[in-house]
Amino acid sequence: MKNENDKSDRRKFLKFGALAGGVVLLGSAIGKAITPEPEKKSGEKVKVLTADGKLMEVDGCQMKHPAANKFTNQEMRKGISGKKFVMVIDLARCANARKCVEGCQKMHHKQAPTEWIKVKRMDDAATLTPYWFPQPCFHCDNPPCTKVCPVDATFKREDGLVVIDNERCIGCRFCMAACPYNARSFNWGEPIIPQGMEQEEYSIEKSFPAKKGTVEKCDFCPDMARQGKLPDCVTECPNGTIFFGDQNEDTVTNGELTFRLKELLTNRAGYRYLEELGTEPRVYYLPPVNRDFKFEEDSKQHNTEDYKII
Amino acid sequence: MEKTEILKSEMLEKHHLRREEMRADVLRPLQKSGLWGNIWVAFLIAIILIGGYAYYLQLKNGLIVTGLRDYATWGIYISNFVFFVAISLVGALISSVLRLTNFTWYRPLTRIAEIIAVAGVIWAGLIIIVDMGRPDRILNLFLHPRIQSPILWDVIVVSTYLTTSVLLLYLPLIPGIAICRNTLTNKPKWQRWMYKVLSLGWNGTEEQWKIMKRSIAILCVVIIPLAISIHTVTSWLFATTLRPGWDSTNFGPYFVAGAFLAGTACVIIGMYVFRKAYHFEKYLTDEHFGYMAKLLVFLAFVYAYFNINEYFIPYYKMRGPEARLLTDLFSGKFAGLYWSAQILGMALPAVLLMFKQMRKPLPVTLISIPVVVFAWVKRYLIVTPILIHPYLPIQNVPESWKNYFPSWVEIAIVSASLAGVLLIITIFSRLFPMISIWETLENEGIDLEEMDKLKIEKV
């Protein structure tokens, strides 16, 4: 009974949210027209649908998305209903450009050597050619990490995401020990927050601002998904290696190419890393066959410097 | 008829004298602490203060001051926690398992075993808080508990075991506290007040003896499943993960067996120290060391059995990721520590103690020292090498992340915790009798309950 109410409440809330979003967008457009304050244009054009159904193109800087912040912690713990996020990584396309790593660090305001997405050189056997292996959090459907959390600070959402509430995490690092892929990082010291962002309100969908003494990791960027945008690791890759999408829609895209998820996995023999562990990852890999690039050794070492105590 | 009466009164007189003698012997160390005793306490406090300062730095800067990083995310704090839980199990072994199996020789050792247990559990609880990134949020364990998490299980069993161990230390001590209350009248006011409160008005009535003995009997049964749980749950902190090296069904009994071995060695060292420092030669006899040595041999064999299952069967198979770990343990960078732990900490002591000459107090104690030291090392080997041998290769990280070496902060804090255990034991031994008088005399056929009933205080 209670659940029913919750659901209809949420529906109402979402309806209201959509309406409010439209009004705010319209309002801000009118506001802009009346008081033309000089704002830096990002140059990036974003297509938006107005409340009356018109498709408009606005500058990226206007996309403030108040809606993303409006969700309560409880709402964000539930996830985006109707979605089942999924990622497909085409190993034939990866050339170790490491743009996904940089893009992710920039977007989440992380500094080296912390990497939420890693690119690893895989040497399966001496007779096989090595290949590059981008590795985000796998957002497992049977997550070993959330099972062991003593305070429900990391949890599985309805939309398939495994996220962390950095305001609840006690920093025991059991989840880090439990994750067989080492997808998780820790805020060992006081995190470096870019100037002017210290006051930003914490949101589990942004994993920002980072909190000292807590665990963090790739969150599949649900705040971007709410805006209908792709995560930065996807858009930053020059080779279109990473595809992101919704299993319910059976679609994944790297921003340029869009595939039917099932077809892609069938035709390209998609697999999940260490399937035998039974963690049911939401990240699929396409084997490195007919590669776009020849394997080349990495030209330099990365992340050689440890953190500095500040 | 006359003759038996005389004989009985003669016997009672003998018993009474024996009781008086033992009371005097056991209480003598409480009269005053020597110079060396004070230096020892000052030394322990100094180490604890340094550790306290190190912890202050850790609180201020975060865990960045440790040698821990994203791969080696657990280090000597956790291995030290496992070690403390391990040594605390001996309390249950000595005072409960031996009691229920109708052995009696162990009785003068119960108090030493119990105080090691209590001090171990207290510091296990403290050191695990030190490992937390956000100790300020510890209440979240009670505000948002997830009972599915082994950490919650650990919180429950550690606190229950602590309570039970304190009771098992305290209840048999009540008659001893009453003696302190009655005889140590020259002590400071707070101490006399403490004896008065803690003795719970004990004056040896039939009712009091009955309640105490019954409660102890119940606690002795309760503590066995608790002791096994506390260390099994601690092993599950590792065994509930999928990591090669931890993902083992053998972990529970392996940990429990190792714990009994380490704890027994600790008690042997404790026995030797108290025998020497407090002149307990009459009560902690060569015979006791002999028995404990034999127990150590037995436990070392049990532990060896689980070690073979834990390391050599996976080694036979050499399954992918586990093979890298085992190679590193057997012949790689951990080989020195690993073989020292297995040989000096387990195999050699077992072999040596099979010779009768080795079962004298001093050799037994000397052999027990490496058993304890390498028990600590073994727990380090259980925690850290596994973490730096994950499924995926460790790449693109600073060189120091690929290995783990504890920082001075960690070493200082761990040293402080070890000093803390010793300090608790030392202070306790300055305030309370370290040998249970009534239990020991019961062993000699002198029933203090009976004597209390006959109100034999003076001859």
What are the main properties of this structure?
heterodimer, A: 310 residues, alpha+beta, Alpha-Beta Plaits, two-stranded antiparallel ribbon, 13 strands, B: 459 residues, mainly alpha, Formate dehydrogenase/DMSO reductase fold, 73% helix, 0% strand
In the CATH hierarchy, the third-tier topology of the largest domain in chain A is known as Alpha-Beta Plaits
Report the span from N to C terminus of chain B. 22 Å
Rounded Rg of chain B: 24 Å
Provide the helix percentage of chain B. Answer: over 70%
Percentage of helical residues of chain A? Answer: 25-40%
CATH topology of chain B, by name, is Formate dehydrogenase/DMSO reductase fold
Helix and strand succession of chain A?
Answer: HEEHHEHEEHEEHEEHHEEEHE
- Uncertain runs of chain A are 1-5, 31-38
The biggest beta sheet of chain B is recorded as: none
Question: Largest interface, per-chain counts?
Answer: A-B, 54 and 50 residues
Just give the CATH class of chain B.
Answer: Mainly Alpha
Please explain how this structure is put together:
The complex is a heterodimer of chains A (310) and B (459). Chain A is α+β, with helices and mostly antiparallel strands and 310 residues long. Chain A has two domains: 2-64; 75-286, 2-Layer Sandwich (Alpha-Beta Plaits). Chain A has helices at 2-34, 66-70, 73-78, 99-107, 144-148, 174-178, 222-226, 232-236, 261-267; strands spanning 45-49, 55-59, 85-90, 118-122, 131-135, 154-156, 162-164, 184-186, 215-217, 242-246, 251-253, 258-260, 283-286. In chain A, the strands form five sheets. A five-stranded mixed sheet of chain A has the order 12-11-10-3-13. Chain A has a two-stranded antiparallel ribbon with strand order 1-2. In chain A, a hairpin with a 5-residue loop joins strand 1 (45-49) and strand 2. The N and C termini of chain A lie far apart (52 Å). Residues 1-5 and 31-38 of chain A have low confidence and may be disordered. Chain B is an all-alpha fold and 459 residues long. Chain B has one domain (2-453): Formate dehydrogenase/DMSO reductase domain (Formate dehydrogenase/DMSO reductase fold). Helices cover 73% and strands 0% of the residues of chain B. Chain B contains 17 helices and no strands. Chain B has helices at 2-31, 35-61, 76-100, 110-130, 140-143, 150-170, 174-183, 189-198, 206-239, 251-277, 286-317, 320-330, 335-352, 361-387, 408-431, 437-443, 448-453. In chain B, helix 7 runs antiparallel to helix 8. Chains A and B meet through strand 4, helix 5, helix 6 and strand 8 of A and helix 5 and helix 6 of B.
